[in-house]
C-alpha cells in the first residue's frame, strides 16, 4: 500500500484499537484524498467534512476510554440513495431535496458499529444505468483509467474504494449496481440476500429487486462491512435469519460443484460475451478446478425471467420520480421509464411478484446439482465516459442490456451474489466474475471468494494512477 492510499477496513480498525492512529487523523486523511480527487474522479455528491471530523473526535474519546465497537472511528462512505440525517438524498437527481430527518436503517447500524460517514457517493439518476453520469453532478470516472466509467449505479462508491479514498463503502444493487461497478474497478462487491441489510425507510426498494450491499478491496473487508450494516427495522417485510458472514473468511469451503454459466439469460436484446472476458472467466474456473472444485459448464433454467423484472423496475422508477422536487429536471429517459412503470404498476406488477415463487422452485432445483454458479459479471469491459450520453431511452436500454445481461436475474430472485476480480482486458481495464448462490448462501460465497483471493492476491494490485485522455495523448 502506498502512503496516499487508505488502509483496509480491518487494518484501520486494528490500528485504531491499538492506538497506532487516531480516528481524527484517519478521517482527515480520507477527506484530503477526497478533496484531491474530486476534480478527476468526482466520486462524492456530498462530503461531510466538518461533521465527520467532529464524529471522529468523539470516536477518539471513546477509544481512549477503552470503548470497542466493530468499526469504531473508521471512515466509510454510503451511496446517495441512503438517508443520512441532516443531508439531502438526491439519488442522482437535480433539484433541491430536503435534508433527511433521520438516518436510514443501514446507516444507523453503521453508526451503531462506530463508523464515521465521511460522505455520500455519486449515483446515476434513480440508479437506473451501469454508468454514473448526469447533469446533477457531472461524470464519475474510473480510477483505473479516467476516460472510462466505473460503472453504476454505485459508481461513486466503487471509484472511492478503488482509489483508496475510503476503505469500504455501501452501495445498492437493483440489477447489478454493486456487482457491475465492482467488476469494472477491481473490487469485491457483495449483493446479499434480500433483507440482509435493511433498505428502511423503504420496506422494499423497487418492489424488492434492490438491496443494499458492500464494496471493498478484500473479501474480509466487504464481509466486515456487511456484518456491521446487517439487520432489520422492526417493520421490514423481509427478515432473513441472522448470519455472521465475516466468520466465513478463511474457512475451507470444501469441495464444491461449480456451474460455469457463460450464456446470458434471455433478453429481447442480443448480448454477446466479449472474448477477452470469456477467457478471464474461464481462467478463473480453471483456478477453481486447481483448488479441487468440480467445475463444468451449465446454465441455470432462467426461462422468461425478464418478464418478472421489468414491471418491478419501472414501477419503482415511477414511484421515485414522483418524489423528485421538480420532475421536469429529470432525464427524458427517466420520464419515459416512469411512464412505462405507471402502465405496468397494476396487474403486470402483481403477476411479476407472483412469478418469483415459481422461479425460486425452478432455479432452486439447479442447486441440487451445483453448489455455486460462476458467471461473468458483465458482457463487456467498462464503456467510455459519455458513451450513453446522447442516446434515447430505447437505445440506452439496448446498449446497457448488451453490456450487462448477467447480473439482474439474481435481483429478481433476491439471492446472494459476490463479484470477484477476474483480471484485466484491453488497455488494462478490470473485469469481474460473479459467484452466485441460493438463499442465505453468503457464508459459502464469501468462503469461496476468500479462497480465491488467497490464491490470486488480486487486492495487492492498485490503479496505476489517475490517467486522463490528455495525459495519455501527451
UniProtKB/TrEMBL annotation:
It comes from the Bacteria. Gene3D superfamilies: Amidase signature (AS) domain. PROSITE patterns: AMIDASES. Residues 27-445 form the Amidase domain. Pfam families: Amidase. Belongs to the amidase family. NCBIfam families: PRK06061.1 (NF004717). This is Amidase. It comes from Streptomyces rameus.
